[in-house]
Write a structure and sequence with these properties.
The structure holds two protein chains of two kinds. By secondary structure, chain A is mainly α. Chain A has one domain. Chain A is built from five helices and two strands. Chain A starts with a helix and ends in a 7-residue tail after the last helix. Chain B has one domain. In chain B, strands 4-3-2-1-5-8-9 form a seven-stranded antiparallel beta sheet, with helices on both faces. The longest helix of chain B is centred in the first third of the chain and has 17 residues. Chain B is globular and about 50 Å long. The relative contact order of chain B is 0.17. Classes of the chains: A mainly alpha, B alpha+beta. Chains A and B meet through helix 5 of A and helix 7 of B.
Chain lengths: ~120, ~280
């Protein structure tokens, strides 16, 4: 039979294990990036208040009503705008520079190559 | 017991913090007082100049030993590399002399994480040497011609990256030291380009840098507290350009005619002889 102190110890151990598995820096976690990119106004609005909490792959909305009371509609609109901008940024084509870098011929060939063919 | 643990920790910290020689290359114009007499320096400088001239070298790459090799990581001997270019030199008195001008990238005095391009002469080059022995690479005549033209042009300075790290990674463009600068100039001349990205692509494709064996604690400590050691351009291992790696590259790729050492007594010997 477990004593009450055993249960307490087990609970403490479990809590400590959960603590260890948390991401060290939530701001840089992929969950935050995906939340911002989703364009969800609620998630973004909550995100900019710093009140959001994230589970892996899921956006957990915070107390939106509280956000509205504290920040008002402007916060929601700003959040929507930020979310939209993030989405557009991710959808934008990746820039490709016009100038290409190619590996030149082996050095010995480059030394003896005609001027225009050296690179 | 707690006191003993604290003592052990303090000893460990002190061991990490103990002055260590910088891991690889560095070059500076000033520094500790010369270990050799002016007469010995001048004589060896003239011996090297005559050796280069006899070999028909209009442009050569020369490495000096600036620190006791015993204090350097394994495989490293030469701590500064520069171009020696045969030139007509006008003295203060107006006299015209024929000899070699040395084109260096040096760390700045008082600002060791920055560098500058400095032209001086063989005696200046040898003055801070630990050992008067030098390593010499004589490029093929065609490459000498291209190097001479490049060094005399504004493109030469444009290849300089003033962000200095003793262990600059030549495969990346973040930092530069004297040897990686020489390598970049060689590649620029070889491929007739001033485009740093193009130069980097060819360096990555063909140059094999030297791996510097530095312990993790020492690497971390050095990068945190030694201003001219930056390791952020490296991955797990430190790769850097050295005179030895440059000689291997240029000889194996058919870019150099000869490589040799001029010993302190003037003898010519293969690079690495006597080690």
């Amino acid at each position: 039979m477990f004593k009450s102190t055993d249960w307490k110890a087990a609970a403490l151990g479990l809590a400590f294990a959960c603590f260890l598995t948390q991401p060290a820096c939530a701001d840089s976690s992929p969950a935050r990036a995906s939340a911002a990119a989703s364009g969800s106004a609620a998630a973004s609005a909550v995100g900019i208040t710093g009140a959001a909490s994230y589970a892996v792959g899921t956006v957990v909305p915070g107390p939106v009503g509280t956000v509205l009371q504290e920040g008002g509609l402007a916060v929601m609109q700003d959040g929507r705008r930020i979310g939209q901008a993030a989405t557009e940024t991710l959808r934008a084509p990746l820039p490709v520079t016009d100038r290409t870098v190619t590996i030149g011929p082996p050095p010995a060939e480059a030394l003896n190559a005609p001027v225009e063919a050296a690179r | 017991m707690i006191g003993r643990r604290h003592l052990l920790l303090a000893a460990f910290a002190l061991a990490l913090a103990a002055p260590q020689p910088a891991p690889a290359a560095s070059g500076s114009a000033a520094g500790s007082p010369p270990r050799h007499t002016p007469e010995a320096i001048a004589a060896q400088a003239k011996t090297i100049e005559r050796t280069l001239a006899a070999a028909g070298a209009r442009v050569a790459i020369v490495g000096r030993i600036g620190r006791d090799p015993a204090t350097l990581p394994k495989g490293l001997t030469y701590t500064h590399v520069a171009f020696w270019m045969h030139s007509t030199i006008r003295t203060r008195e107006g006299e015209l002399l024929h000899g070699y001008a040395v084109h260096n990238l040096y760390q700045r005095d008082g600002e060791p994480d920055r560098s500058e391009l400095v032209q001086d002469f063989p005696a200046d080059f040898l003055s801070p040497a630990f050992d008067l022995k030098v390593a010499v690479l004589i490029p093929k005549p065609e490459l000498q011609a291209r190097l001479g033209a490049l060094i005399s042009s504004p493109a030469y300075a444009a290849l300089h990256n003033p962000r200095y790290s003793v262990v600059a990674n030549p495969l990346r463009d973040r930092y530069q030291n004297c040897t990686s600068f020489v390598l970049d100039v060689v590649m620029a001349a070889l491929y007739r380009t001033e485009d740093r990205r193009q130069i980097r692509a060819n360096v990555q494709a063909y140059f094999q840098p030297q791996i510097v064996e530095v312990g993790g604690g020492r690497r971390l400590f050095a990068s945190l507290f030694v201003p001219d050691v930056a390791t952020s351009d490296h991955d797990e291992r430190i790769h850097t350009a050295t005179m030895e790696a440059l000689a291997d590259f240029m000889m194996s790729q058919g870019l150099a005619e000869r490589s040799f050492e001029v010993a302190a007594d003037g003898r010519i010997q293969p690079i690495g002889a006597g080690r």
